Amino acid sequence: MAHEINDSNYEEMVMKSDKVVMLDFWAEWCGPCRMLTPIVEEMYAEFDGKAVIGKVNVDENPDVTAKLGIRNIPTIMFFKNGEMVDKVVGATAKANLVNKLNSLL
Fold first, then answer.
1. pLDDT score for 32
2. How far apart are CA 55 and CA 5, in angstroms?
3. Which tens digit of pLDDT belongs to each residue from 58-67?
4. Residues forming a β-bridge with 83
5. 3-104 in CATH: which number?
6. Which positions are annotated as active-site residues?
7. pTM of the predicted structure, to 2 decimals
């Protein structure tokens, strides 16, 4: 299961990570978010040890959500060396996310 990133572990798990990080910003009530969940879980298994794949529930983590300016969900953000380097807003194909992640590894 993808890492649960929250207001308290964001700094450690994302900003201080020595690996590329992909974060899925989602909410229970969001239909397109639920469509992305199996893709994110598959990527967690496929990139285990190579990248950090995490999920941020926007309803439960307002600090991180506000800090990163998340206005629409789902939003997928990619981080490298603590910097946000790419993002995708809205539901997207797995191949698109895999290509973006592979390009950062």
1. 97
2. 6
3. 999 999 999 9
4. 80
5. 3.40.30.10
6. 30, 33
7. 0.96
> How far is 7 from 18, CA to CA, in rounded Å?
19
- State the DSSP code for 74: S
Name the H helices within the chain. Answer: 10, 31-46, 62-67, 94-104
Question: Given this model, what pLDDT does residue 85 score?
Answer: 98
**DSSP characters for 31-60?**
HHHHHHHHHHHHHHHHTTTTEEEEEEETTT
Q: Contact, 28 vs 37, CB < 8 A?
A: no
CA distance 58 to 5: 10
For the stretch 20-29, pLDDT in tens is: 999 999 999 9
Structure tokens given for 20: 């590329």
Pick the closest to residue 80 from 23, 32, 29, 24 (CA basis): 23
